[in-house]
């Protein structure tokens, strides 16, 4: 049996677990303000990942419109930050 570091063991566990999307959403939330700016972060109510789709919830109509225009940029930034292709689509609600 091979030896694993604690980080490697956690990564293996998350790859096989249903918790992976939740953990990734928390990681995205923690850097959301840095990635998107204070104003966007302030009015973003919820971030959720379901089947490689990032759901962003906001009740501010102009922000919804802005996020729709930035879909590709959001996907690119998040995937770069995560170091893998985590997000394929963005849905703004």
What is the average of the pLDDT values? 86
Low-pLDDT runs of 5+ residues are: none
Share in helix: 55-70%
CATH architecture: 2-Layer Sandwich
In total, the number of domains comes to: 1
Biggest sheet character: 3 strands, mixed
Major β-sheet strand ordering: 1-2-3
Q: What is the first-to-last residue Cα distance? A: 47 Å
**Class by SSE composition:** alpha+beta
Count the strands?
3
Number of helices: 5
What is the CATH fold-level name?
A: GMP Synthetase, Chain A, domain 3
Please give the oligomerization state of what you see.
Answer: single chain
Task: Walk me through the structure.
This protein has 93 residues and is an alpha+beta fold. The protein has a single domain (6-92), classed as GMP Synthetase, Chain A, domain 3 (2-Layer Sandwich). 59% of the residues lie in helices and 15% in strands. Strands 1-2-3 form a 3-stranded mixed beta sheet. Strand 1 (46-50) and strand 2 form a beta hairpin. The radius of gyration is 15 Å and the shape is elongated. The chain starts with 5 loop residues before the first helix and ends with a strand.
